[in-house]
Each structure stands twice: as structure tokens, then as C-alpha cells.
Amino acid sequence: GESVGLHLPTLSVQEGDNSIINCAYSNSASDYFIWYKQESGKGPQFIIDIRSNMDKRQGQRVTVLLNKTVKHLSLQIAATQPGDSAVYFCAEEDLSNQFYFGTGTSLTVIP
Amino acid sequence: EPEVTQTPSHQVTQMGQEVILRCVPISNHLYFYWYRQILGQKVEFLVSFYNNEISEKSEIFDDQFSVERPDGSNFTLKIRSTKLEDSAMYFCASSDEGKGQPQHFGDGTRLSIL
Fold first, then answer.
1. Rounded Cα gap, residues B15 and A52, in angstroms
2. Which residues does residue A10 pair with via DSSP β-bridges, in sequence order?
3. Which residues of chain A does B99 touch, with a Cβ-Cβ cutoff of 8 Å?
4. Neighboring chain B residues of A42 at a CB cutoff of 8 Å
5. Is pLDDT of B84 > 60?
6. Cβ contacts (< 8 Å) between A32 and chain B: which residues?
7. What percent of chain A has pLDDT over 70?
């Protein structure tokens, strides 16, 4: 089955610094990927997505990079703010429209 | 901004009892999903639903589980005879199109089985 995992379970950054959260996936047939943010007591919140025909996609303060060669996904958050503190999940979609989530990385922003 | 709403936020049920978790997906969405998240673990796919029938289901979604869209706005997950291991957060999600589109999640129902 699919395996989506994260390299680091926790990440602490200073406010204003950039954050990079990494994710490895195992299914080379997956063609759609999403980063979700989950705050305590809330459901996963969509941040940004990327399709497999792209290497990079930018949003507001966030960038997702996809390296299909090594099956690696990363989320970059520019000028990290205290409100960015949350658990971040990557998710991959397989051919049958099922999403597989990683374990999550807990991001803590230090004021 | 439209959102997925789930009720109740917390459900406490005795083992062996039936429980129904309710969701109101975003109004113009056509694809509906249920996921669960056991404390400290990954979000796991349970089932997807489109055009009044199940599209996909995982191994977790056994005969104890069922889903229904009883009217034009609600989407429910029923667990017939709850077990202790059913204790988890249950998330409903919806999307306007199926594959290759973001799924928008509700804030979940915390199910506690005693």
C-alpha cells in the first residue's frame, strides 16, 4: 500500500524565519498532492496543492516543491508567523481518488 | 467562505451501541468523504461517496459502517455496534469535483466509546 511519511516530527523556528517541512511518498503513480494544516481541535485546512506535472507551485507565503525522482515533497513557509504554529500533513492521492496522509510535522513558531 | 459542518463535536457512546455522525458538506459539492484519526496517528481514509453510492472504501470500512445522504444537505456515517477501538476523531470532507481536487474538511466529531 501507499506510504506517506515525514522526515521530522517536530520543527521549531523563530518568528520571521522561513520554515521547510518535508515529506516522502512511496507511490510513484500518485499524481496529486496536498499540504494541509491542522490546528488543535480543528480539521485539516487546505494550504496548497500540486499536480505531478509540476515541480513547484507558489501561494501566499507558501511554496510547494515536488521532486518525483526521489518522491519527495516539501512545504516552504516564508516569514513564519505565530499563527503558523500547527501540525502540517502532506497527502497524496492515488489513482482511485483516495488520499493518504502522512503522520504530520508539528511546527512551533518561537516569538 | 463556505465550510463543512459536523455534529456533534463530541459523542460519548457505550460499547455495542449504534452511533450516527452527521455532516453538512459544502452546498455545491458533489463528492463526500469520511476519514478518521485515532489520537496521535495519521488521518485515515474510510469511504468516498458520489451520486448516492459509495465510490471507494478502505479496509477499515467494514460491515459495521454505513453512509447515507438522507436528503439534499446531510451526509451521515453510522457505526452499528461500536467497539472501543472506534474511538477517534471522525472527519467529513467534500469536494466539488472528484479526483485531483482539494477536499475541504469539517472540524470533526470526537467519538469516545466507553
1. 44
2. A106
3. 32, 93, 97
4. 107-108
5. yes
6. 99-100
7. 93
User: If you search the block for the grid coordinates 463530541, which residue do you land on?
Assistant: B10
Provide the chain A residues 13-32 that lie in CB contact (below 8 A) with chain B.
31-32
Closest to A45 in 3D by CA, of B96, B57, B93: B93
Identify which of A103, A34, A40, A43 has the alpha carbon closest to the alpha carbon of residue A75.
A34
**DSSP conformation letters of A10-61:** EEEEETTS-EEEEEEE--TT--EEEEEEE-TTS--EEEEEEETT-SEEE-SS
Q: What Rg value do the Cα atoms of chain A yield, rounded?
A: 13
Q: What are the start-end ranges of the E strands in B51-97?
A: 53-57, 65-68, 75-79, 88-95
Q: Does the beta-carbon distance from B99 to A97 stay under 8 Å?
A: yes
Quote the cell numbers at residue A32: 496529486
Instruction: Count the alpha carbons within 13 Å of B52 in the hemisphere toward its beta carbon.
Output: 3
CA nearest to B91 within chain A: A43
Q: Could you say which residues of chain A have pLDDT below 50? A: 1-3, 6-8
**Residue that the C-alpha cell 516522502 belongs to:** A24
Q: A97, B41: Cβ pair inside 8 Å? A: no
Determine the Cα angle at A91 with ends A63 and A89, to 5°: 70
Q: Quick check: B4 contacting A, CB < 8 Å?
A: yes
Residue A110 · residue A13 · CB < 8 Å? yes
Can you read off the three cell numbers belonging to residue A109? 513558531
Å between A50 CA and nearest CA of chain B: 9
B11, B110 Cβ separation under 8 angstroms = yes
